[in-house]
Amino acid sequence: MRKCLLVVAIISLGFKANAQVDQKASYDFIERVIAGKSNLFAVEAIPQQNGKDAFELESRNGKIVLRGNNGLSIASALNYYLKNYCFCDIGWNGTNLNLPATLPVVKGIIHKTTPYQYRYYLNYCTFNYTMAWWDWERWQKEIDWMALNGINLPLAITGEEAIWQTVYKEMGFTDKQLDEFFSGPAYFSWFWMGNIDAWGGPLPQHWMDSHKALQKKILERERSFGMTPVLSSFTGHVPPSFKDKFPGAKIKRTNWDAGFPDVFILDPDDPMFETIGKKYIEAQTKEFGTDHLYSADTFNENVPPTNDSTYLDGMSKKVFNSMAAADPKAIWVMQGWMFHYNNKFWQPQQIKALLNAVPNEQMIVLDLYSDAHPVWNRTEAYYGKPWIWSMLQNFGGNISLFGRMRHVAADPAIALHDPESKNMRGIGVTPEGIEQNPALFALMLENVWRDNPIDADKWVANYAQRRYGQVNSQAGEAWHMLLNSVYSGGLTEGGPESIIVARPTLKKYIDRVLTKLDYDPMQLAKAWTLLINAADSLKQSDGFQYDLVDVTRQVLANYASPLQQKMAQAYQNKDQQQFKLYSSQFLELMDDMDALLSTRKDFLLGKWINEARANGVTDKEKNLYEFNARDLVTLWGDKESGLREYSNRQWAGLIKGYYKPRWVMYFGLLDKSLSTKTDFNAEAFDKQVKDWEWQWVNKHDNAYTDAAKGDAVEKSKQLFAKYNAIILGTR
What is the residue range of the signal peptide feature (predicted)? Predict the structure, then answer.
């Protein structure tokens, strides 16, 4: 998982590259985006430009003409018009669609051609850290957002488990044997990637059936826009009972080193490997169709058994043959994460052996982490393979303000024009989680229709205007400060976390809760001041409300660290009075953060839990899904899990209902040790807190609401009045 992988592929031949524009579908799309306005637009078709997607804009007879070579280009034309002529913005966390009464005229003809043949979206992890409980309504909104932003290569792995059920049952495996294989819905990403079996299960049949049907809707809609979805393939992961059913098979045990039992991988040398791979793609194609793109990675954070080039070459050929046996047009999609994650193993000789075993046009590599740790520039651009420059963000679905905006603004175009980038075919957005840091994603996707670097300073000023619906000098200045602080992130695996989400400690940080800031927190505090000052003018903007809450949250989350250290110092000094003062202030800060986050649906634990429960049709199913939802964002496993807090979230409900009680328990024991002048029993606390956490994960008490409450702007102002002077005093 650390960090999750993702796979994508691109094909240069064989796509329906010049898909027809479906007039009805395009008008239906416009109506979904701006209800009641579709009659103000005309939709027309134009051909691709030099094999690339293109769109045009023009005013004619009182209407805005949107032209494109497919539905995706039509959608991109609409988005370009809304952003650049109406100063509107469509995003996850606040949308501004206050169109002028009369639509602005387009002078002349605006023509745009993308320099990138492929624009990839999603990460295996996104399907769980954010999308685990999505229904069709939510998926439809996301696919529309993808189309607006020019994405044409979405990873599409919903419903994969239903195909595996078909394949393995045809091979004679029983439901009981498969119950020991399939994970719960919140853990599919790591089941699909061959890291874990069964955790969070057993998986109900209703889930299999309903999500197979959901995947068909997703694929139909994506393809209707002219997108080419990336499906899955066989990487060797087999049920634990496989070794008993086929005792002669070459199977190796492997372990992800994250506290879960071994999983079983069928060796590509075994003749059954190609047979199963062929069966899977045939069954998948029967249900879902195909665009000939298949993700596959046999070494997700696992080291191969040998670094021998002959072995790696042979293995690579066999994995590809398992696809090509069912689909001669198959393109192997390989992600480059392992070349970064296990870079000591993957030296040039090993990488070449793996890549060169497959023809160039039948393998695509996703450079997963180009914005921080590019691999293309130390592998001769993947030795000639087509590859995609990608932005990896938001590890574990955490919500810290974070990003490398200036790199995202400039580096894709710089790489595109670098002779050393060779066969760079596109750009990608590959987050572990979404629905946070919307500006970062919007900036990255600004690259889709241009081939020159973006001026990040000008862009954030324009973004603030679009998002808030008006020019506001203080908001513009605040965004400039955000660009140069939280959005000038270092080479860390995501943003810094707050000490409040850690299992209680006197230390500044613990494993998976790293609190070191790589920016000046006073710059963020100044941006907060500017947004507060702009609040009366901008408070009607939904996007502004979200941003104000998010910045307030981050300022308070940062302040928790010096406050916790004051508490720790008081305890170490055996100053009980000061200890009680700082520990009570720390708990009060958590209550304040919870109340703040309660004002926005974006930050509610109850929304996450209730959406999970909504997928079940029986109480047993609903309770299973709630366990999955609670466990993923807390323990990420059992009570001894080494991955706890990996997917921590600063959410209302989670702060007051989970993080705070742990600190209350801890402070009570520390206070008792001061009162009795005895040593703190860390071992006893460890057992006590683990038991409490496990009980919380297994609750079904309907304790958390999915309805926002309170006024986001007023609550932010109250907390500013309470904390600003104190925080500035911590300089």
Answer: 1-19
